[in-house]
Design brief:
The protein is of the alpha/beta class. Helices cover 43% and strands 9% of the residues. The protein is built from 56 helices and 26 strands. Strands 3-11-4-10-9-5-8-6-7 form a 9-stranded mixed β-sheet. Strands 13-12-20-17-14-16-15 form a 7-stranded mixed β-sheet, sandwiched between helices. Strand 24 and strand 25 form a beta hairpin. The chain is globular.
Length: 1470
C-alpha cells in the first residue's frame, strides 16, 4: 500500500509540476519526495519510446488517467481527457502541505455561499467549461467574520491568536478552520447567521443540530479526523477538500483507544480538558451558547497530556499591560502599550470608548465612587510596595483544566478571587514503580538505578516539555534531570545548553557528559571551543549572554537551557548575568533550574513563569540520600551535637564545653570540690578555689575562633584515619591557611605503597604536559610531593592543571585529606565521607561574618557518598577554650537557607546592547527583573490599567460638568485659583504646626482649649474655612482614644457647620450619640455644630483669639468608649463607684429609683440647662468669629512666640521664614472673591473632588509608566552620560563609540573604548599593550607602584589610563550617579601585575616572573588567561573602528602570551 500511495503522489507531483498553481512546483516536489519527470515534449513522446521506457510510460499514463478521473469527479477538472489540460482554478498550496501548527489563513467555499464583503484570494478563472456551475474559490478567513471582529478581539478567541489550548480546540480548529471554532457543529463551520433563514428548504440547519449530528461531532473530536472519516461520522467537507490526514487523538494522548473504550463503557463521550460543548444556534443568546443546549460531558485528566491552557494565564500576564513603548513581546502587549503609553490623548480616547460601551450596556448595580475606589487601590499598592516581606504564600493553581465535570462549581479560571500562580507545585500521582514506567514507556535515557520520586517527577515534566525548578540538597541527584534533558535534545535533534557559574565546573561536566553521551558534547569557554556543533553545549552563563546579545545562530536550535547552581544568582558581582539570560532567552526555550534548597523557591519560580509566560513546575525535596551527623572536635574527641533531622543536642554541646576546660582548671575545680566537702564536714568555712586558666589571645568572645596548632591537626587527622572517616575535605576560608595546614602535615603518609605508585604515575603524566622549566616550579614540585602522601590543597591560587590533578586524584580516593576553600563546594561533584570546618567565620569582601545556614549546608553536603556511606560526618573544629556559642551553632545547623535575592543592576554594556536590538528595551529589561517583580505583580493583580481608564473617564465627566456649571458660579468664578491657593496654605500650615507640636503639650499654647482655628474639610465633611474651637490638643493621649486613632496630629474641635448644612433624616450614626461624643451634631443659635476630629492638614490657620470654655462639656472620652456603653451583666456592681469616692454615704455609687420631685432629677435637669447655656455661648462666639473672618479677617497667632524655646540658629531662621510665607499666603487667599462667598463649600467641593481625582489618576499613570521603576532614574542618568561622551545620539541611536563599547564584556568597557579612540594603544608595542590591559583584569589588592624597569611609554600609558578613569568617574558623579572618582579609578585599575605580564609577553619563563611578585601562581594564570579574551575583544574593537594596525597588534599580543603553563590543556578535555 505504501508503494501505491507513493506512486500516486509521484503522479500528482508530475501533474502539479506542469500546472500553473499558486504553489511553487520546485518547492512542492521536494516536500513530497517526488522528482520532476524527464524533460520531454509531452507524454505521448515518452510513450513512443521502446523497451522498458515504454512500459514505464504506460504506467504513468494509466496513473494520470485515474488522477484525472478523480479530479473531474470533484469538479476540479472538466470532463476532457486531454492530459496536458491545466487546472481551471488556483489551488492553495496549503492543501498539499503537511499540517502546520498555525491554522490556514484561507479556506475554500462555493461561490454562491460567499457572504457580502468576503475577499477572494487570487483571480477567478473565466473558463467557459465551468460556467453555470457552482465554482469553488479560495477566500481569506478574516473576511468571513467582519461582523465578528470586534467580539473576537474582546474575547481573545482563537481567531486572534495561534493554535493552542486543549485537544478539542485543536481538532475543531484544524478540521473546520478558525471559523469552525465559532460554529463548531455546522457544515464546515462557515455559514453566516442568516444562512438558515435564506435557505429555501431549511434542512441544513435542522440536520446539523440534531442529536445524532451532535453525538457524531463529539465522537469525531475524540477519535480523530482520520478514524472519524473511516467510520463515516465526520461531517462532510466542501467539495475538493479532504481531511483524511489531520491531527489525531493519538498524536496528543498515547492511550486514546483505551480511553475511548472506557468512556463508551461508562456511557459518555470524553472531551479533553473538561470543556463544555454547547450549540450556538443562529439566534441563541450568549447564555444559551455557554451550555443551555449542550451539556457537560464526562471528562478525563490524562497524565501524559502535553498541552496546557495558555488562555488561563493571559489576564494575569506580567506584561499584558506594559507601558514600554519599544517592547514587542506580543500583539496584546503592543495594544496595551499604545493604550497606556502615558499620552493623555490616548487615555481620553480609551475613556470615551469605555463611556460609549457602557452606554449600550445596562449596569445592574451602582458602582463604588471612583475616588474611593482609586484611594482604596492606591492604599493597597502602597502597602505592597512598602512591604519588605516576600509575596504571601497562596495555594498554587493547577495549569490543567479541572477534572470534575458537570458539578457547576466555579473553576480557578473563572473565579476572579483565586490568585493564579505560575509556580505549580502539583505532583503527578505515582504510587508504584510500574506507574512511572507506564507513563514513560519509551524514555529518552535509562539509568542503571531506581530513580527517586523527585527525579521521576522531573523526568515526567521534561517529557511534557515543561519548565522545571528542582531544589534539592547537595549530592541528592539533581544531575539526573540535566542528563535527561540532554538525552531529549539528542532525541529531538535539537540542542541543550548547560550553564555553570564557574569554568572549573564546566570542564568537569564536559568530562562527565562526554563519557555518558559520547562525542556529541561540546564545550565553549573564553579561550577554547570544542565540539561547538554538538547537541549538548557546556558553557558559563556569561558566554550564553554574549551569544544572546549577538544573536548567534545556534540560539534557534536550543530546546533546553539548564541553569546549574542557580542560587549563585545571589552573587553581588555576577548574579545580574543570570537574570539577563533568563529574561532574554526566547519563549520557545524550555528552562531547567537546579538549585540548593531555598526558602523562596516559589517566589522565584513565580517570577520566571510570569517573565517567560509559561508555568514553572517546582519540585522541592529535603530528602538527603546520606544523612549527616554533626560533631564538635573538642578535647581530642568528637561530640555529637546533631544527627539527621533530629534537633540540636545540648548534651553533646555541654560535653564539648567540659572537654575544652584546661586540665589545670579541671584539677583545681576537683580539688576545691573535695575541700568544700571536707570543710562542710568539719563545720569550717570553705575557701574560694583558685582560678587557673591557660593564656588566651584576644577577647573572650573570640576565644572559640582560635586556630589549631600543628599537633592539634596531626591529632585530628590521626583520629579520622583511625575511625575510617577518609577521604575528608577540610574547608578553610583562606588560601594561605590551606597551605599552612597542609605543610604542617609533612610527617604524615596516608597512602599505601600501591596507592602511592598510582599517584606518582598519574602525577608524572600530568607534569609531562609542561615544559622542562615549568616542571621545576616550586608549586608543582610541592604539590606532587604532597599528593603522593595522600594530602592535597585546592584553592584559586593553585595552577589550573594542578587543581585538576588534585580533583581527579580525590575522585579516585587517592587523596585522603583535602584542604580547600569554599569554591570546592560550588557544584564540583566530589563527595567525601567526612567534612571538617577549620573555622566558622569568613570574609565576604566587606567584613568578617559567621557562615550563613545556606553556605554551611552547601559545604557540609559534600559529606556522605551515596551507596558507600550510611552517614556523612561533619566535624567543627574547636581549638579555643570554649566552643562556638550555641546561638551561632543552632542558627547554622537548623536555620533556613539563604533566600534568592535579585542583584540586578544596570551597566553601560547592557544599556548599549539593549539599545542596539529591537526585541528588548532597557525599560523592558528592568520591568522583567526579579527586583521589580513584586511591584509589577501588584500592578497587574489589581488591574490598575483598567482603573486608570475608568478614572480618566470620570475625570472627563467632572471637567465637562464643571465647565457647564460656569454660569451658576456667580461671584465665585475664581474658585479654582482659590482652591490651589488654599491647598498650598494648608500644606505650609501643617508643616509649621507639626513642628511646634513636636515638643509636646499644646504646642506652646497654640492648641489650648478654646482656641479659634479655621478648618477646611471639603471631602470628608463638606465645609470650607469654617471657624472651630479647640477642645483637646493633639497630644499623646489621643493614642488611647476610643476612636481608634493612633495619629498624634489629630485634635478634637467644635466646628461651626455652614449655613447650607442640613442634617440627614434617619441617620443611624447619630442615634445614641450625646454631646461630648465624637461626630455628634447639635443645633444652637439656629446653626448646626459638630464635634469632629480634625487632622493638622485640615487646619487653614490658627487665630490669636480664644474663648473660655469647659472642654469636658463638649468632649468626653468616656462617651466615646464602647466599653462603657452597656454595663456588664455578669457584675451587678459594675457601675458602682469605688469605696474611696463614697465618703460618708455608702450608697452614693448605687442607682436609686426616683420619685416625682426627686432632687436627683432636678439636679439632672439643672445640669442639662447649664450645658445648653455653654453651647449657646460657644455658638455665639463661633458665629461672631465667622463674621469677623468674612469682614476684616481673624488675627493670626504669632507662631514664633509658640516656638521661641524650641530652636536656635539656623532652625530659628528657617522657621521664621516659613511663618512669613504663611502670612503672605493668608493674605493672598483673602484676596479671592470666593473666600467671601456664602455658599463657597458647594463650588469648592466640586473643585476638590475633581482635582483629587486628577491627582489620583496622575499617580496611577506614574505607577504604570516607566518612571515608577526603581532603576529608571539610574537609566536616565547613565544614558545622559553616554550621550555626553558620544556613545549615543539624541535619538538614542548607538554611535560608533557605542558599538565599540559593546564588544567589551570582560572588563570596564568605557575605559577600553576611550583608550582605543584616544589612540593610546596605537603608540604601544604588543607586549606593552597586554601589560597595560592587565590593570583592567587583576582583582587582588596589592602594592601597585610601577617598577622603574618598565618602559617609559608603558608607565605613561598607565598614568593616562588612571586619568581616563578619574575623568569618567567625575562625569558619572556630575550626572548624579553615586560614584566617587578616586574610588572608581581604584576599583577599575589595579597595576599589581603590569610588570609580571610585560615580562611574560617578552618571553621570560614563568618561574622567573613568579619571583617578581608575591601573587600566587594561580592568580597570575587566571589573569593572563582572561587577558587573552580581552585581546580578542579589543581586536574586534579595532575591526569595528577600521584600524588594521591595532588589529594586527592585538593578534600579535595574543600570540605572545599564549604559551607554556599558562595555556596548558585541561586534563578534563584532553
Amino acid at each position: 500500500p505504501q508503494e501505491q500511495a507513493r506512486s500516486k503522489l509521484r503522479t500528482l507531483g508530475e501533474l502539479l509540476s506542469k500546472s500553473n498553481t499558486a504553489a511553487n512546483p520546485s518547492a512542492l516536489s521536494p516536500a513530497l519526495g517526488i522528482s520532476r519527470p524527464p524533460q520531454c515534449d509531452d507524454v505521448n513522446t515518452a510513450a513512443a519510446s521502446d523497451g522498458p521506457d515504454r512500459t514505464r510510460n504506460n504506467e504513468i499514463n494509466s496513473a494520470l488517467e485515474s488522477v484525472n478521473d478523480a479530479l473531474a469527479a470533484f469538479g476540479v477538472l472538466s470532463g476532457s481527457r486531454n492530459p496536458e489540460e491545466v487546472w481551471q482554478r488556483p489551488i492553495p498550496s496549503s492543501l498539499f502541505q503537511p499540517p502546520k501548527y498555525l491554522p490556514s489563513l484561507t479556506t475554500i467555499m462555493p461561490l454562491s455561499l460567499l457572504p457580502p464583503g468576503a475577499k477572494i484570494r487570487g483571480t477567478r478563472s473565466n473558463d467557459s467549461s465551468i460556467n453555470g456551475k457552482d465554482e469553488l474559490v479560495e477566500v481569506w478567513t478574516y473576511s468571513l467574520s467582519s461582523d465578528y471582529d470586534n467580539e473576537a478581539s474582546n474575547n481573545n478567541d482563537l481567531h486572534q491568536r495561534p493554535l493552542q489550548g486543549n485537544l478539542s480546540s485543536k481538532l475543531v480548529e484544524y478540521t473546520r478552520g478558525t471559523m469552525g471554532v465559532r460554529r463548531p457543529f455546522r457544515p464546515g463551520g462557515m455559514e453566516d447567521e442568516d444562512d438558515a433563514e435564506n435557505d429555501k428548504d431549511g434542512a441544513v440547519e435542522s440536520d446539523y443540530l440534531s442529536e445524532e449530528a451532535i453525538t457524531n461531532a463529539r465522537r469525531a473530536l475524540t477519535v480523530g479526523s482520520k478514524k472519524a472519516w473511516e467510520q463515516g461520522i465526520l461531517i462532510k467537507a466542501p467539495p475538493g477538500v479532504s481531511f483524511s490526514e489531520g491531527l489525531r487523538y493519538e498524536d496528543v494522548f498515547s492511550d486514546g483507544d483505551e480511553l475511548l473504550k472506557r468512556e463508551e463503557e461508562e456511557g459518555g463521550v470524553p472531551v479533553d480538558g473538561g470543556d463544555t460543548i454547547a450549540i450556538d444556534a443562529a439566534n441563541d443568546s450568549e447564555a444559551a451558547g455557554r451550555g443551555q443546549v449542550g451539556q457537560t460531558v464526562s471528562t478525563f485528566s490524562a497524565p501524559t497530556a502535553t498541552m496546557w491552557d495558555k488562555s488561563y494565564f493571559e489576564d494575569d500576564s506580567l506584561f499584558g499591560d506594559s507601558t514600554s513603548g519599544s517592547d514587542s513581546d506580543s500583539d496584546e502587549s503592543e495594544d496595551d502599550d499604545s493604550e497606556l503609553g502615558g499620552e493623555t490623548g490616548k487615555l481620553e480616547k480609551a475613556a470615551e470608548d469605555e463611556m460609549a460601551k457602557e452606554a449600550t450596556m445596562s449596569t445592574p448595580a451602582e458602582p463604588l465612587s471612583p475616588i474611593d475606589e482609586v484611594d482604596s487601590l492606591l492604599s493597597e499598592l502602597q502597602q505592597s510596595l512598602d512591604s519588605s516581606k516576600p509575596l504571601s504564600k497562596s495555594p498554587s493553581t493547577s495549569i490543567h483544566p479541572p477534572v470534575s465535570g458537570g458539578t457547576g462549581k466555579s473553576t480557578p479560571k473563572n473565579d476572579p478571587k483565586t490568585r493564579k500562580s505560575w509556580a505549580v507545585t502539583e505532583y503527578i500521582p505515582i504510587t508504584t514503580s510500574s506507574d512511572f514506567h507506564t507513563l514513560l514507556p519509551n524514555p529518552a535515557l535509562t539509568f542503571p538505578f531506581e530513580l527517586d520520586d523527585f527525579q521521576k517527577q522531573a523526568v515526567l515534566r521534561l517529557e511534557r516539555s515543561e519548565c522545571v525548578f528542582l531544589a534539592a540538597h547537595t549530592s541528592a541527584g539533581k544531575t539526573v534531570c540535566a542528563e535527561y534533558a540532554i538525552a531529549l535534545a539528542k532525541k529531538h535533534c535539537t540542542r541543550a545548553i548547560y550553564t555553570s557559574p564557574i569554568k572549573a565546573l564546566s570542564n568537569q561536566k564536559y568530562r562527565d557528559f562526554r563519557n555518558k553521551f559520547g562525542e556529541d558534547v561540546g564545550l565553549i569557554t573564553g579561550d577554547m571551543q570544542i565540539g561547538a556543533d554538538g547537541s549538548c553545549l557546556i558553557m558559563t552563563t556569561e558566554i550564553l549572554r554574549s551569544m544572546l546579545y549577538r544573536g548567534a545562530d545556534l540560539i534557534r536550535d536550543i530546546e533546553w537551557v539548564i541553569f546549574d547552581e542557580v542560587h549563585y544568582i545571589n552573587d553581588s558581582e555576577r548574579g545580574v548575568v543570570w537574570e539577563e539570560v533568563i529574561i532574554m532567552l526566547p519563549d520557545y526555550v524550555n528552562l531547567i533550574f537546579l538549585s540548593a534548597t531555598t526558602p523562596n523557591t516559589i517566589e522565584f519560580s513565580e517570577w520566571i513563569g510570569r517573565t517567560k509566560r509559561k508555568p514553572v513546575h517546582v519540585i522541592r525535596t529535603n530528602y538527603r540520600p546520606v544523612p549527616l551527623s554533626h560533631h564538635l572536635w573538642a578535647g581530642h574527641k568528637m561530640h555529637k551535637i546533631m544527627e539527621g533531622k533530629q534537633g540540636f543536642n545540648p548534651k553533646g554541646y555541654a560535653e564539648a564545653t567540659k572537654a575544652l576546660i584546661p586540665p589545670s582548671v579541671r584539677l583545681a575545680a576537683e580539688k576545691a570540690k573535695k575541700d568544700k566537702a571536707a570543710n562542710n564536714g568539719a563545720g569550717g568555712k570553705p575557701k574560694p578555689p583558685p582560678v587557673v586558666s591557660r593564656p588566651t589571645s584576644g577577647s573572650k568572645m573570640s576565644s572559640w575562633q582560635q586556630q589549631g596548632s600543628k599537633q592539634d591537626w596531626i591529632s585530628l587527622v590521626r583520629h579520622l584515619e583511625k575511625e575510617g572517616l577518609m577521604p575528608t575535605v577540610t574547608f578553610s576560608f583562606s588560601k594561605k591557611k590551606c597551605e599552612e595546614i597542609a605543610d604542617s602535615l609533612r610527617s604524615l603518609n596516608l597512602n599505601t605503597a600501591a596507592e602511592k605508585n598510582l599517584v606518582q604515575s598519574f602525577a608524572i603524566q600530568t607534569v609531562a604536559r609542561l615544559s622542562s622549566n615549568d616542571q621545576c616550579l616550586p608549586q608543582v614540585v610541592k604539590t606532587v610531593e604532597m599528593v603522593k602522601r595522600g594530602i592535597g590543597v585546592h584553592h584559586g591560587g593553585l595552577l589550573p592543571i594542578l587543581k585538576e590533578m588534585v580533583e581527579i586524584l580525590f575522585s579516585r580516593n587517592l587523596i585522603k585529606i583535602l584542604f580547600a576553600t569554599e569554591t570546592f563546594a560550588m557544584g564540583v561533584n566530589m563527595p567525601a565521607r567526612c567534612v571538617v570546618f577549620n573555622a566558622l567565620r569568613k570574609h565576604d569582601g566587606v567584613q568578617f561574618r559567621e557562615l550563613q545556614p545556606g553556605e554551611y549546608t552547601q559545604m557540609a553536603g559534600r559529606a556522605g557518598r551515596r551507596g558507600l556511606d550510611k552517614v556523612g560526618t561533619v566535624v567543627l573544629c574547636c581549638f579555643g577554650d570554649t566552643p562556638p556559642p550555641q546561638t551561632i551553632l543552632r542558627n547554622m545547623l537548623t536555620g533556613s537557607s539563604t533566600k534568592l535575592q535579585s542583584q540586578f543592576r544596570l551597566t553601560y554594556t547592557m544599556i548599549l546592547n539593549l539599545l542596539r536590538v529591537e526585541d528588548m528595551s532597557v525599560e523592558g529589561m528592568i520591568k522583567r527583573s526579579f527586583s521589580e517583580f513584586a511591584a509589577q505583580r501588584a500592578l497587574t493583580t489589581n488591574e490598575y490599567p483598567k482603573l486608570l481608564i475608568r478614572g480618566t473617564k470620570t475625570l472627563l465627566k467632572l471637567d465637562e460638568d464643571f465647565k457647564q456649571d460656569e454660569d451658576s458660579r456667580i461671584a465665585c468664578e475664581d474658585v479654582e485659583e482659590y482652591y490651589f491657593a488654599s491647598r498650598k496654605m494648608l500644606s505650609t500650615s501643617k508643616d509649621l504646626l507639626s513642628y511646634i507640636l513636636s515638643s509636646g503639650g499644646t504646642g506652646g499654647g497654640a492648641f489650648v482649649a478654646g482656641r479659634v482655628v479655621l478648618v477646611t474639610s471639603a471631602r470628608r465633611h463638606n465645609y470650607v474655612r469654617v471657624p472651630a474651637l479647640v477642645l483637646r490638643s493633639p497630644d499623646v493621649s489621643s493614642k488611647s482614644s476610643s476612636t481608634g486613632s493612633t495619629d498624634d496630629s489629630v485634635c478634637i474641635c467644635m466646628v461651626l457647620l455652614p449655613q447650607s448644612f442640613t442634617p440627614a433624616k434617619d441617620d443611624e450614626q447619630q442615634k445614641g450619640l450625646k454631646l461630648g461624643a465624637v461626630n455628634f451634631v447639635g443645633e444652637a443659635q439656629n446653626r448646626f455644630f459638630a464635634i469632629h476630629m480634625v487632622p493638622l492638614d485640615e487646619i487653614l490657620l490658627v487665630s490669636s483669639t480664644k474663648h473660655k470654655i469647659d472642654s469636658k462639656v463638649f468632649y468626653k472620652e468616656d462617651l466615646s468608649k464602647s466599653k462603657r456603653s452597656v454595663p456588664s451583666f455578669g457584675n451587678p456592681f459594675a457601675g458602682a463607684k469605688s469605696t474611696k469616692d463614697r465618703d460618708a454615704n455608702p450608697f452614693a455609687g448605687m442607682k436609686v429609683r426616683g420619685k416625682k420631685g426627686d432632687t436627683s432629677s432636678q439636679k439632672k435637669a439643672t445640669g442639662l440647662s447649664q450645658e445648653a447655656q455653654w453651647v449657646d455661648d460657644a455658638m455665639s462666639y463661633l458665629i461672631n468669629a465667622e463674621s469677623t473672618e468674612l469682614n476684616s479677617g481673624l488675627d493670626l497667632l504669632d507662631l514664633r512666640e509658640c516656638a521661641k524655646n524650641m530652636h536656635q540658629g539656623n532652625s530659628a531662621m528657617e522657621f521664621g521664614s516659613a511663618c512669613d510665607r504663611l502670612d503672605r499666603e493668608v493674605a493672598f487667599v483673602r484676596q479671592f472673591r470666593s473666600h467671601y462667598h456664602p455658599n463657597l463649600e458647594l463650588h469648592y467641593v466640586a473643585v476638590d473632588r475633581k482635582e483629587t481625582l486628577r491627582s489620583r489618576v496622575e499617580t496611577l499613570r506614574h505607577l504604570l509608566s516607566n518612571e515608577s521603576l526603581q532603576l529608571f532614574p539610574d537609566f536616565l542618568q547613565r544614558k545622559a552620560m553616554l550621550q555626553s561622551l558620544g556613545y549615543l545620539d539624541e535619538n538614542d541611536t548607538v554611535c560608533l563609540k557605542g558599538r565599540v563599547a559593546c564588544e567589551v564584556n570582560t572588563c570596564e568597557g568605557l575605559i577600553v573604548t576611550e583608550m582605543v579612540f584616544e589612540g593610546m594603544l596605537n603608540e604601544l608595542e604588543p607586549a606593552e599593550i597586554v601589560a597595560a590591559l592587565s590593570a583592567l583584569l587583576f582583582q587582588e589588592k596589592k602594592d601597585e607602584d610601577l617598577d622603574s624597569e618598565l618602559p617609559e611609554r608603558l608607565v605613561s600609558s598607565c598614568e593616562r589610563m588612571k586619568a581616563i578613569a578619574i575623568d569618567l568617574g567625575q562625569r558619572q558623579k556630575d550626572f548624579g550617579l553615586p560614584v566617587d572618582p578616586l574610588e572608581y579609578c581604584v576599583n577599575s585599575l589595579k597595576m599589581g601585575l603590569v610588570h609580571v605580564v610585560y615580562e611574560w609577553a617578552c618571553g621570560v619563563p614563568f618561574s622567573s616572573i613568579c619571583e617578581l611578585t608575591d601573587v600566587q601562581e594561580g592568580s597570575i594564570v587566571r589573569c593572563i588567561t582572561r587577558l587573552d579574551e580581552l585581546c580578542r575583544e579589543v581586536r574586534n574593537c579595532a575591526r569595528v573602528v577600521g584600524n588594521p594596525t591595532l588589529y594586527r597588534k592585538m593578534e600579535a599580543a595574543s600570540e605572545f602570551i599564549k604559551r607554556d603553563i599558562v595555556f596548558a590543556s585541561s586534563l578534563y578535555v584532553s
